[in-house]
Specification:
Layout (H helix, E strand, L loop, with lengths): L2 H42 L3 H30 L1
Helix pairs in contact: 1-2
């Protein structure tokens, strides 16, 4: 393998690792925010339909973030 190829590969892996770290931090922040918003919804005593919509939105957000993290982890494994 050429040195140029290895340098390029190393750069790509470094960027992917940085992105994974950023996504993990974002995921933690989003989980904290979801917890806060859940508490707000509970305190507001919103109706059942509003709560269902909120939970569906929350689950979609969690799914999308988890998917992004999984894709980047897959890149790192090669």
């Amino acid at each position: 393998m050429s040195q140029e190829f290895l340098d390029s590969l190393e750069t790509l892996i470094q960027h992917a690792a940085e992105r994974i770290a950023t996504l993990r931090e974002t995921n933690l922040e989003l989980e904290r925010r979801v917890t806060e918003l859940d508490a707000e919804v509970a305190a507001a005593g919103s109706g059942e339909a509003g709560e269902r919509a909120w939970r569906a939105e929350r689950e979609e957000l969690e799914r999308r973030v988890a998917s992004l993290v999984a894709r980047l982890e897959e890149l790192l494994r090669g």
